[in-house]
Amino acid sequence: MELILVVVGAIVVTAIAQRRGLEPALIIVVVGIAVSFVPGFEAPELDSHILLSVVLPPLLYSAALDFSFPTFLRNIKPILGLGVGLVVVTAFTVAAVSSWLVVVPLTFATALVLGAVVAPPDAVTAVAVGRKLGLPKRVMSILTGESLINDAAALALFSVAVAQVAGSHTFIENPLLLFAYSAVLGPLVGAALGYITLWIRRRLANPALETVQGLMVPFAAFILAEEMHASGVLAVVVAGFVVGSGTVDAGYQTRLQERFVWNSVDVLLEVFVFAYIGLHLRFVLEDLQQAHESLTQVAVASAVVLLIVLVIRPLSVFAMFGRGVLARQVERRLSVPIPEGGGRGALGVRRQSQPPAKWRSRIDNRALSWQENVVVSWTGMRGVVTLAAAAAIPATTAAGAPFPERATIQAIAFVVSVGTLLLQGWTLPLLIRRLKLSADADQAYTSAETQKAEQVVHAAADEVLAEFRANPPDGLDPRVLAEIGGIVARHSQDADEMPDPEAPTLRAEVFGQLYRDVLAAQRVALIGERDAGRIDEEAVRAMLVRLDLQEAGVSARLESRF
């Protein structure tokens, strides 16, 4: 009952915040904190495993469904740098500083648990703000890709650190081998489950059952991978990529249903997570008092860790991306061309004449602008993974002793989560507006790709219509056939131009079949151009949505006739 009330309250707050132009996640956290201090209020308790296995998988799966793998591959360098490299750097930096401080008694191993807990950012708020304010497409792609893999890196590091402190044994004792095993087997499990899902769908031919099956995929992928001691996060992400790329072969009803169902699931889970964070802050502080910890000392330690988290990301982003920009500027200014016959100047740079491999040619090596680097640097809000990992710290070690400084680690993690949400979440929109980031180049590119997609669907329609005119069905007057062909060719006001629904005619039947043949040919042509790499996948997906809506309208009209 308490969980239902939390969700209902969070949805109400979300609706009010959106009507007033405010960011719902931040308002939910603030309201949750205020409600937690109401006398007599008891926050709902959830097992950490529920947060990890029920909340996290569908959020990741939904993001992967809408995120094309070619886009992921195109931005693989910054995604890996932020999603893996920055997570490791943040965790070890927090561990080093926290163990060095004398404010709270943390060993390096215990501090590494804290570092792994606070290392992974949650891009939900950043992506929502960026989409509303029109951030460049590439920045959005990098942030989304980072959110898909940083959780896996952080949770793997968290498991190793907890095992070291608790004295428990992991599946593979060597941390590097364990990470490699998890990172390889997890995607394999996800890919296998994704292809099995597509195979089953082709045989179900039932939109309702296909949608229900899709809802089960993220949980199945996560649980199966975790049971095999692999990365459940990576399994879910890869399963989402596979199913997302294969949905073009499903029926239009399945695609439309899934689109709206997953949007609703995302909203439901996101508001719950932010409400849960706000509602539990007071009780984390009470746990500290019961553990006889000094609130002042923990507050100081929390402020230090929060400062580290806020500072380490801009420094790392500059080191990874800004340094490359500087190096290219130095090379451009100081290098001299090499003569055709060979030889080397004092600062000459020899270029490789060998063309890059095909997969490498698809990687975007363009540097981010300094404005984009600044925005990426300030999108480090913590969320569901930090919350779940903090709650997942065991109460006791393998020897039965209390886990060292468990309450302290949980309190610091909650403060960091709330602090980053409020500080970065509230200032990010202002920062984006001040930097005046423009998406004009993206709009030009999107328009060009959309025009390509329209040319493809028009050409496919022309081929089907030409075949229809060359081999018309029997039983209809040639003038009626010409009228049908003209209506389909125009792709406008189809339903209004069809005969009255009360009068089923051969004309309506021929119209419907021809229209479906055109749509099928258009989808095949789009997928062929996408697979050949001649059209951006996102443009293809947008066009497929348009075709699905067209088919839904025509089908609804025709079903009313028969």
UniProtKB/TrEMBL annotation:
Which keywords belong to this entry?
Cell membrane, Ion transport, Membrane, Sodium, Sodium transport, Transmembrane, Transmembrane helix, Transport
Single GO cellular component term: plasma membrane
Its annotated compartments are: Cell membrane
A single GO molecular function, which one? Answer: potassium:proton antiporter activity
**What InterPro entries is this protein classified in?**
Cation/H_exchanger_CPA1, Cation/H_exchanger_TM
User: What is the membrane topology listed in the Swiss-Prot or TrEMBL record?
Assistant: Multi-pass membrane protein
Q: Name the principal localization, coarsely classed.
A: membrane
Any Pfam family matching the protein: Na_H_Exchanger
The answer to whether UniProt assigns keyword Protease to this entry is no
* Keyword Ribosomal protein carried by entry: no
Report which superkingdom the organism of origin falls in. Answer: Bacteria
Q: For this chain's UniProt record, which GO biological process terms are given?
A: regulation of intracellular pH; sodium ion import across plasma membrane
Q: Where is the Cation/H+ exchanger transmembrane domain?
A: 9-432
Residue intervals passing through the bilayer: 49-67, 79-102, 108-131, 152-172, 178-200, 207-225, 231-248, 260-279, 299-322, 384-403, 409-432
Q: What is this protein called?
A: Sodium/proton antiporter, CPA1 family
UniProt organism field = Mycolicibacterium vanbaalenii (strain DSM 7251 / JCM 13017 / BCRC 16820 / KCTC 9966 / NRRL B-24157 / PYR-1)
Question: According to the entry, what is the taxonomic lineage of the organism?
Answer: Bacteria, Bacillati, Actinomycetota, Actinomycetes, Mycobacteriales
